[in-house]
Amino acid sequence: MIESSEKKNKELAALLEVSRVLTASFDLDANLNSAMKTLSEHLDMQRGCVYLLDPVTRDLRIVAAHGLTEEEIKRGKYRIGEGIVGRVIETGSAMFVPNIGEEPKFLNRTGSRPEKQGISFLCIPLELKGEVLGVISVDRIYSERHGSVDDDIRVLTVVASLVAQFVGLWKSYQEADKEREELRRQLKERFSIPNLIGESEKFQAVLKAVSKVAATDATVLLLGESGTGKELIARTIHYQSRRAKGPFVAVNCAALPESLLEMELFGAERGAFTGATERRIGRFERAQGGTIFLDEIAEVPFQLQAKLLRVLQEKVFERLGSSEPIKADVRIIAATNRDLMEEVKKGRFREDLYWRLNVVAILLPSLRQRREDIPLLVDYYLRKFNKKYKKRIEFSQEVINIFKNYHWPGNIRELANTIERLVIMAEGKMIEKVDLPMNMFHTEETNSIQSTLWQKASLLSEVERIERERIIQALKENNYIQSRAAKALGITTRQLGYRIKKYKISFP
Ligand SMILES: Nc1ncnc2c1ncn2[C@@H]1O[C@H](COP(=O)(O)OP(=O)(O)OP(=O)(O)O)[C@@H](O)[C@H]1O
Ligand SMILES: [Mg+2]
Predict the structure, then answer these.
(1) Which domain, by its residues, includes 480?
(2) Which end of the chain is less congested by CB atoms within 10 angstroms, N or C?
(3) Rounded to whole angstroms, what are the CA distances from 168 to 60, 132, 171, 256, 400?
(4) Domain boundary among 363, 398, 423
(5) Which atom of ligand 1 is nearest to the CA of 197?
């Protein structure tokens, strides 16, 4: 009786120890080896092996063994249905061989039992959710002082279920890890230099700067009109940098009011303000080890700019309502379509922050400044949307010329959207001039001067723009006879001549 309770205690201790070593790390081999070692030490079992079934080849492989040499491990390969181990895999039920010397099914593949006499063999399936993942096998020499086979099977069944759970967990972790790795690879490829379209000198200079800064941890300021690719470039810098494995966190600084923006950036401690029932992790914290992209940086309120400056200078920040400094291992990329120096002059943007951000500034050219890239971009987006909508649309040369000459105030985003719309709407195979939206011709008839005009577009007031339109209209209606056009407009010929010069209106 005492003996039996002593034995139970021993079993329990062994099981506890097995479950402890199985959760000690996430290393499959190490954990399983320790588990087998524990088992033989505590329960006086000679050899112990864990075999796992390869899901692809359906081969069994020894992943952990105690009491076997490397050589023996290598030899221990079984096919399903082969030998006792194979049988257990096939049937999913445990087997016991009292004396392997008398069992013809016992193949002794590992060659580790020269003296087969007197050794018993136990083999238990590793089962998880109805699927057999492998087996555990144990050699045992039974003598008077050992317990019964039933006891052993009971203990080993518990061990097998612990091992199966660990293996299952390990497998799903491996799979998730593989998926993560694959996603990372895809992102790295998607945001790479070859995917940035443009062969013009201006754009090539941008690419050169991008690859240079990607190799560093320097703060980058991206300047450029709307739709010129600021966010795309920011991601490219991140995914081509040593931080690619870390997160890329984008914050649109114009999207939130001051109080919320502050909390969004730095986070807040529980109870930092009424209603703050939980700790909030800010974007800087989320970006640890990666890159934070501060979009529309010019819109950050003045007060908050001081806090940003501190992160840039000291690389630390605090959550709202906390005084505990958090170290920021974060690369900062900021972007704006405003003239930041102008904002500084007007007292809306801190000069010290401006200089801190301006370590490396990359100016993205507008599409008007790199017209030679337009056909390339058209080609790229046409392919992309043809693929997406399973179409085979083409653009006539005339259309491409109109694209080349249009002023593209929304830059690449506008170009991409225009092409997508055209591809969706297209009925025939070829897109012609008539298919284009009206606003694209608007400038076509004033071709020769339009580029200089549009460079100054921001300076022209709306009134001036309308005046110019009306003059062109009047000239056209009066066969370009200036005196008649002037009369129609209610101004003198001299006044008209002056305006024609001012607005650089050309005649056919
Ligand atoms: N060089 C390029 N090659 C191909 N596509 C580009 C390129 N630059 C930008 N794009 C595409 O143009 C669109 C606009 O780019 P993005 O959003 O990066 O511009 P942005 O400068 O951040 O604009 P905004 O100031 O309006 O936020 C995106 O769809 C982007 O993929
Ligand atoms: Mg943007």
Answers:
(1) 460-502
(2) N
(3) 16, 11, 5, 44, 57
(4) 363
(5) 3
